[in-house]
Amino acid sequence: MVQPASASLEHTVIDVLKNVSRRPIEPTMDSDLVADLGFDSLQVLELVAELEDRFDVSIPLNDVPSTRTVAQIVAQVARLVGERPTA
Amino acid sequence: MGRLRTLPDALADAARGDAGYLFAAGRADTFRSFADIRIASMRAARALREAGLRRGDLVALVIADAEAFLTMLCAASMAGVIPASLYPPALMGAGDLSRYFQLTAGILRAARARAVVTSAALVPAFDGLRPRCPSLSLVIAHEQCEAPLAEPDVLPALDDIAFVQFTSGSTSAPKGVALTHANLSANIDAINGPAGLMTGADDVGVSWLPLNHDMGLVGMALGAMYAARPCVLLPPQTFVKRPAEWLRALTRHAGTISFAPSFAYDLCVRRIKDADLEGLDLSRWRVAGCGAEPIHPPTLAAFARKFAPVGFRETSFLPSYGLAEHVLAATFAPRGRPLRIENSLVSCGTPLPGHSIRIVDAVNQPVPERRIGEILLAGPSVMLGYYHQDEPGDAIEDGWLRTGDLGYLADGELFVCGRAKDVIIAHGRKYHPQDLEWAVDDLAGVRRGRVVAFGTAGAGRADRVVMVVEPNGTVPAASLTDMVRRRIGDLFGLYVDEVAIVPSGTVGRTTSGKVQRAATRERWASLAELKAESRELRAES
After folding, report:
1. pLDDT tens-digit profile of B400-436?
2. Cβ(B177)–Cβ(B324) under 8 Å?
C-alpha cells in the first residue's frame, strides 16, 4: 500500500534507528541492521520496542529474525500501521 | 550450614510448602507450586525411563520455555540421567539455522548425548541430526513427557552429576562443566546462607535471566527452590525489549532478591523513561545482585540515582564474583554495605563460607595482598571437571580451580581486574574466541584457519570484539567484513566491533596448527598503530 505518509514514516524509522544505535550511523534504505549499522541482538529488541511506542503497533517477535534491512523494517511498520484499527 | 541435598531432595522439601514459580508471560501469568513442579517432574521422569533412558545417559535439554525446562531438569535427575542445557535456536539470534544445528551437533557428539528433549516443533530438526551424532538414539518432545505418576526409582546420589552446562559452543572440544548434586547444594546453600543473601521467610525472587545461564538457573530459579521461596520468572526477551518490566515485576510482587549483570542496570538507566518511574516501588528490593561480567561503578551509581526516588537503596547492590566451573558464586560483598571502590574497581567481597581463594603469580606461587595475579578457588563448589573431556586439561590442580581471571585481594576482599584467558565477555555472557573463529571459518573469502577473535577490555567496561581475518582474495574486503559481522550476529547475537582484514602471514599458527591468538593480537595492535601513524602523517602533510 503506497501512502503519502510513507516518506515521513521512513524518516521516523531512520530517526529511531539513530537513537537506538548510539553510534554515528547514517542509515539508508539498503542498510543491513547487523552488518552496516552494528546492531546486536539486544539493540534489535530495543529497536522493536521503540518502533512499537512510536507507531503504536505490536511487532511480533517471530518476524524479527527475517527483518534485515531498513527497507524491510519500513515495509513491516507500514503494513502494521495500515492494519491498525482506526480509533 | 545444613546437610547437602540432591536436586530431587531439595524439590521434595520445597514441595511441602506453598511456594513456587510464577511464570510471567505478559498477558497471562502461570503459578506452579513446587509441589506441582514435583508431580510434573515425576511424570516426566517416568516418561524418560519408559522411552528407554538409563542411569548415566546424557540428555540434552533444548527448551526455551521456562516451566518446561525446569520440569525436565528435575525429571532428568529423578530418572537418574544427566541433563545438559543447550541454547535453543530462538535465543541464538536468527537466520542461519543450519550453522546453529551444525554447532549443536558438535556439542551433542562430544557429549555423547543419548537423547535430546526439545519442543515438538524442533523434533524434526533434531531427528535430522542423528546421522551426524551416532550416540543420539532418542529425540523427545517435552510436551509428550507425561507418563502416569509414579515414585522415582533411580534417585541420584550426592556425587552423581546434577547437570552439565556447556560454556563453549562449537569447536572440536566443546566444554561442558559437570557439576555434582553436592557441588550444587554446597554453592546454593552458601548463597542462601548468612554470609550470602540470608534468604528468609519474606523473600521473593524476581528474575528475567535465561535459564541456560548459571546466574539465572542456579542463582535465581534453583536458589529459590532450595530455600523453598517464591520466584517470579520473566522471559529474557521481555526484559531486553522493555527493561521497565523487570522493575514493574519487582514492584508488583514485592520482590526482594534479583540478580543481573552490569549491562542490565545500564539498560535500565538508559532506556527507562521518567514517565515509567510512576508506580514503581523498589523499597522491598534488598539484594540487587550484580555479577557475571565486569562491574562498572558509574553504571551502578547512575542506577541508584535514577531509582532512589522510587525507593531503591544503593546499599542493596551486592557485587559478586563467580563462574560456571564453580557452580555460580565464589565471593559476595557484605550485604547492606555501600560499594567499596578502588582503582575504578568494585570489591566483590570475600569467599563463601567453606570456600577458599588464592591469588597466584605466573609460576603458581601465592602473592601478597594488593598484588595482581590469577584467581584460584577451592572448596565444595569446584566442578567435578569438564564432561567427557579426553584431555583432563589444567583447569583444576590439587583441588584449586584456575579461573583464568586476574585480580587482587585487599583486606581479604577480591577485586577482579581482567582475564588471563582469551574469553570475551559481552552482555554477561562469555564467548570463547575459538567459537567465533570457527563460526566464520567456512565463509567464502576467508582463508581457512586464519581467523583470530579477541576482546579488548577497558577497566570495568564491556569488551570490544575484534576479529582478525586473512582473506583468500575471492571476495572484496568490504563484503567480507559484512559477511563476518552478519554470521556472528546471526549465530551469537553479538556485534563485532572491528573486522580487521589483514595481509596473509599476520595470523600465526603453532606447529600443532593452532592459531597464535596473543601473537596475532600484538601484530593487529601494531598494524593499528601503523595505520594511525600514517593517518597522522597524511593529516600533517
Report:
1. 999 988 999 999 999 998 776 678 887 777 788 888 8
2. yes
- Helical segments of B22-63, H only: 34-50
User: Is this model's pTM higher than 0.95 or not?
Assistant: no
Higher-confidence residue: B184 or B500? Answer: B184
In 3-state terms, what secondary structure has residue A57? coil
Closest residue to B427, CB basis, from A39, A42, A46: A42
Residues of chain A with pLDDT > 90, as a percent, come to 11
Question: Residue A23 is which amino acid?
Answer: R
- Going by C-alpha positions, the residue among B259, B28, B87, B61 that lies closest to residue B145 is B61
Write down the residue that cell numbers 554495605 correspond to: B337
Residue A86 forms contact with B (CB below 8 Å): no
**What ipTM describes this predicted complex?**
0.74
- In one letter, which amino acid is B491? L
Summarize pLDDT for B475-497 with one digit per residue, the tens: 888 889 988 988 888 778 788 88
What's the CA angle centered on B240, arms A24 and A29, to 5 degrees? 40
- Calpha distance B223→B8 (Å, rounded): 14
Query: Shortest CA distance to B494 belongs to which of A14, A15, A35, A54?
Result: A35
To the nearest whole angstrom, how far is the Cα of B492 from the nearest Cα of chain A?
8
Name the residue among B405, B424, B425, B423 with its Cα closest to residue B415. Answer: B405
Flag if B241 and A41 touch (Cβ within 8 Å). Answer: no
**CB B86, CB B166: distance < 8 Å:** yes
B contacts of A66 (beta carbons < 8 Å):
94-95
Find residues 339-398 of chain B whose CB sits inside 8 Å of chain A: none
